[in-house]
Amino acid sequence: MSLFLLLETALREIMAHKFRSALSMLGIILGVSSLIATMSLTAGIEKGTRDFMEQIGGLETVTVGNKEISADKMDFWNLSPGRTLMDAVAIRASAPLVSHISPEMNHGAAVSSGSITDRKLITGVWPDHFTVAKHELAVGRLLVDLDVDRATRAAVVGDSVVGQFFPGKRAEDVVGSTLLLNGSPFVIVGVFTRYERERDKARRDLEARNKGSTPRAGVPKWRFDRSDPFRRKNEAILIPLSTMFYEFKAGLFPLDAMESVRVDTLTLRVSSLDRFREALEQVRATLTGTRRGVDDFELETREEWFDRMESSIAATRLSGGLIAAIALVVGGIGITNIMLASISERVREIGIRMAVGARGRDIFSQILVESVSVAFIGGVLGIVAGFGLIELLKVVAPQENPPLVEPSSILLAVGFAVSAGIISGIYPALRASRLEPIGALRYE
Amino acid sequence: MTVARLEEVTKVYRVGDQEIHALAGVNLVIEEGEFVAIIGPSGSGKSTLMHLLGCLDTPTSGKMEICGKDLSRARPDTLALTRNREIGFVFQSFNLLSKLDVVDNIALPLVYSGVSAAERRSRATKTAESVGLGERLRNRPTQLSGGQCQRVAIARALVNNPRILFGDEPTGNLDSVTGKAILEMFCGLHASGKTVILVTHEQSVAETARRVIEIRDGKISREYAP
Fold first, then answer.
1. Least CB-packed of A74, A159, A362, A374 within 10 Å?
2. Residue A29 carries which DSSP code?
3. Given an 8 Å threshold on Cβ–Cβ distance, is A355 in contact with B156?
4. Which residues, in sequence order, are CB contacts of A24 under 8 Å at separation 6+?
5. Which residue(s) pair with A122 in the sheet?
6. Using a CB-CB distance cutoff of 8 angstroms, which residues of chain B are in contact with residue A430?
7. How many Å lie between the alpha carbon of B174 and the closest alpha carbon of chain A?
8. How far is the C-alpha of A208 from the C-alpha of A221, rounded, in Å?
9. Element (DSSP H or E) covering residue B86
10. Nearest Cα residue in chain B from A10
11. Cα(A168)–Cα(B75) distance, rounded to whole angstroms?
12. Burial class (CB within 10 angstroms; exposed 0-12, middle 13-18, buried 19+) of B16
């Protein structure tokens, strides 16, 4: 029997019993649609997480943190100067595997422009900061070594700052404007691009399309969304570290001892992940020197954190896949069940086919093709239903990360459906093919 | 040429722990072109004999040769192939597939001999016309009368041009007029050279044939020419 004829016969059989076929497809439809939905949900989460990881600097980033000193070594504590600018200078000088080192000094300052004044956190940085924090410039320029050497009054600001202090102005128009930080005039030399999550971008695009106008990126309505991981980056006001020291911190430390100034954070980036451990060793050795042997620091890598994220993604995927797999197994059992019922209804037909010369394998392939066809049609309907389910989920439970339907998941779903059809069809097909022609012909 | 040769053929069925000897040593030779009727009361073993001659079953012991092939120990696939090529069945209850129309029903044996769709169609149509169903090609069996159904069954039995045509009580479900017409078709087929074997319990039907074989208790009890 040719495959075409087998398919035709199978489709005729399916169409002849529409309700029964629909029932046997139901399990597959549910299984495939939940498979598609969970896979695209996890794919969306995964993509969002990876994007976010990328945004915050990836695995190469290491933070120098403080460590509690054990009680018996308390006496030595005073020997260590703590996390100072000296650390950064020393790492830059003697840890060649560290490509960037970014000391930061924060200061809460009254920021004003025109009639608008607000208290904001301003941060003094080295040019390395832009690489470590993965900042992207929209217009103007970044701070350079010269700004740090000369302690210029230059500032690079985030997109939200433009929106707040220069309402209605575009980023391009703000470059060159003056911003008062605790009364001192600073020139804005550059503005960062707007950092946002996929869903915010999508929403903004949608709103823009609805209004038919270009959106003002700077003043989004959801600016105060506390859960936005990019909020701090968008609200950044960055000035040279030296300027920060001379302008805002000079009173607190001896002027000639800038290197003994404590920094609030110290973040570095290793040049290559392949030599990550080695790089950490270099940093550790250097810092042991600057801290005079006191073990009061620790190197916080993101490795563990990333591992945790990865494993939670894997767990989500596994549980979703498990649910879908169970649904597919149940669907397969449904097909088996209904195929068995349909065979016992068609014993006579099988007998007639055998009497005119059908071999066991002809009957076997007829039943198998039928069950695979049921599963395949169910799979296709399941994909359609899966897309519907995803749309429904988007409306009912908006996700941080929009679901992402990958072609591979569609292929996988069809593959699973067809396999379910094959597996569930084998037993009924075998039973049908082993019928005795005489008994089958006599069957009433 | 000999189309069927049975030598000391027995067939034993096992029902529970009881053995039923349906055939107990049958010797029979049927030559090509013969018109044979097998007659006997129910339970005599005539159906079993027909199943063996029709390659639906193999004997428990003895030798069975159909169309020159020894099928005494044949595997089911070999039997299926022989049924497909050499044998055509006409049953009492027609045994048509209600899902298929007349042409597709007639073409069913061709499906299993690997004939292309176009050829299946043309051969089935031609055979349908030869049994007088030219007007009914697209009808389903449920839309046909009993006599027409049996014509479809005859056409299906003939479509692969087999050597032996079996009729298993072919007139059993028909009124006497239609039954007579069907029997005349069998006679006509015999006249055109086909080997015809009728299985019946009706004397009048059996006597249409040239050779009558009477079965009783699993043995050939009498053989005569009417």
1. A74
2. H
3. no
4. A334, A335, A337, A338, A339, A374, A378
5. A107
6. none
7. 19
8. 13
9. helix B76-86
10. B99
11. 90
12. exposed
A159, amino acid identity: D
Q: Which amino acid is at A262?
A: R
Q: In the structure encoding, which two tokens stand for residue A121, read together?
A: 């956190």
Strands B195-200 and B164-168: parallel
The residue segments making up the domain with residue B117 are 2-224
| Closest among A234, A102, A219 to A157, alpha carbons compared | A234
Return per-residue pLDDT of chain B as tens, 226 residues: 899 999 999 999 888 888 888 999 999 999 999 999 999 988 888 989 999 999 999 999 999 999 999 999 999 999 999 999 999 999 999 999 998 999 999 999 999 998 999 999 999 999 999 999 988 899 999 999 999 999 999 999 999 999 999 999 999 889 999 999 999 999 999 999 999 999 998 898 899 999 999 999 999 999 998 8
Beta-carbon contacts of residue A11 (< 8 Å; ≥ 6 apart) = A373
Mutate to test the interface with B, among A1, A352, A354, A356 (most CBs of B within 10 A): A356
How does pLDDT run across A331-368, given as a tens digit for each residue?
899 899 999 998 998 999 999 999 999 999 999 999 99
Alpha carbon separation from A172 to A137, A205, A232, A249 (Å, rounded): 11, 21, 21, 31
- Amino acid residing at B187: C
Domain ranges of chain A: 3-54+308-442, 61-301
So what's the ipTM on this one? 0.95
Amino acid B123 reads R
Q: Is the pTM of this model over 0.80?
A: no
Is the distance from CB of A293 to CB of A131 less than 8 angstroms? no
The pair of structure tokens assigned to A317 is 């995927």
